[in-house]
Amino acid sequence: MDGGPRGTGVGWRTGIAAVLDDLDGLGFHEVIAESLHPGAVPGSLRRRPVVVHGVRLSPGSPDGVAPDRVAHLAACAEATGAVLVSEHIAFTRAGGIETGHLLPLPRTREALDVLAANVARTRAELAVPLALEPIAALFDWPDDEFDEAGFLHRLHDRTGAPLLLDVANVHVNAVNRGRDPRAEIDALLAGLPPGAVAYCHVAGSAVHDGLLHDTHTDPVPGAVLDLLAHTVAQLPGPPAVMLERDGRYPPAARLRAELDAVAAAAGHRPPLPAGGPR
Q: Closest Cα partner for 147 from 104, 117, 207?
């Protein structure tokens, strides 16, 4: 996607902000909109291109997107000079009740209508594109009319919105359903035009109660790095890729090593010098 993020990035979090300030060669940061005050943008977020990433917009809500949340996304994008805004193909609110979680949409024509209308409403207030991320979901609705690839293809046809392809989510969903993650990636990308993938996420996961969970607190497993390399091979060129970490942050040297591994799988130059602390 023209004008979007480039290279290897990492999610900007206050817990590792000082470490990130000392790292060289990162392509971009992604910042959680709900953790940001547009009037008080940290200086370190102005050093690199920024993607504003929302988690509470609830674009799948039949009652529509809340105007104040759309306005907040727009204000954050303007304050940071963001190159892109992204949100989840999910709902967090229904019937006026906040769930506190990203919940999957039923893959139906009716849900597509709701999602397309809410995406259009949000994009009308943004000065930059809006990318949409399929989530890691522990269940599917029984009345699904499409598989995930079919649903995402129809969503792109309806909205033209680029995709934030979370490779770790694809891996988790496939493992929990007994499917081949590579086949899932192939089916998804086969129905999208060139340039439809804005960027990718990778993250760690762990097994709890017999299911694989997308944790963002564990190291990126080799299986996800291999799936990222497979994904890159299906695209016209290496996409921007971002490492998500949301707690249990590793020491700086280990974070650098993890970013080097992500860059290698993505076909990027390593963003940071190999080895220990400088």
A: 104
Task: With 0.90 as the threshold, say if the pTM is over it.
Answer: yes
278 within some domain: no
Number of domains in the chain: 1
- pLDDT, residue 272, reads 59
Q: What is the mean pLDDT of the chain?
A: 94
Q: Which two three-digit tokens encode residue 107?
A: 């893959």
Q: Which residues pair with 28 in a beta bridge?
A: 9
Q: What is the domain range of residue 150?
A: 8-266
- Whether 99 maps to a domain, the answer reads yes
- The answer to whether residue 18 is domain-embedded is yes
Q: Flag whether pLDDT at 186 surpasses 70.
A: yes
Pick from 165, 240, 232, 235: nearest CA to 2: 240
3 assigned to some structural domain: no
Query: Which CATH number covers residue 84?
Result: 3.20.20.150
Q: Give me the pLDDT at residue 173, please.
A: 98
